[in-house]
């Protein structure tokens, strides 16, 4: 059974930091690219960061560049999202998605999400 479990969310003041973790089981994690997404109430889910299976390629959405850092430890089946200088507009449920190509199609899995609230 495949599971992705996010953790590390919570309430933080503006300017603060949080580190999210996404830990996978049931898959060969080192063959999956991972994306971090977020969804605020009344909005569509948006991708904020992504990291390739070996960690060599990383991309960020413009609004988080310079503030968020994504990394992975394949030995621990875990991807991290370090979030610094948090703003109220970063408030959302954060999800991780692990994806790989299988026979020309995409196989992907989602975690259950972790709430991040940035408020004074």
Architecture blueprint of SSEs:
Elements: E1 3-7, E2 10-12, E3 18-25, E4 33-39, E5 46-51, E6 58-60, E7 68-73, E8 78-83, E9 92-102, E10 105-110, E11 114-118
Parallel strand pairs: 2-11
Antiparallel strand pairs: 1-3, 3-8, 4-5, 4-9, 5-6, 7-8, 9-10, 9-11
Task: Assess the beta-strand content as a share of residues.
Answer: over 45%
Largest sheet: 7 strands, mixed
Tell me the distance between the termini. Answer: 40 Å
Number of strands: 11
Label the structural class: mainly beta
SSE arrangement, N to C? EEEEEEEEEEE
| Mean pLDDT over all positions | 97
- What's the overall geometry? globular
Based on the model shown, name its key terms.
mainly beta, 11 strands, 120 residues, 7-stranded mixed β-sheet
Describe the structure.
- This protein is mainly beta and 120 residues long.
- It is built from no helices and eleven strands.
- The strands form two sheets. Strands 2, 4, 5, 6, 9, 10 and 11 form a seven-stranded mixed sheet that branches. A four-stranded antiparallel sheet has the order 1-3-8-7, with no helix packed on it.
- The protein starts with a strand and ends with a strand.
- The model has no long low-confidence stretch (mean pLDDT 97).
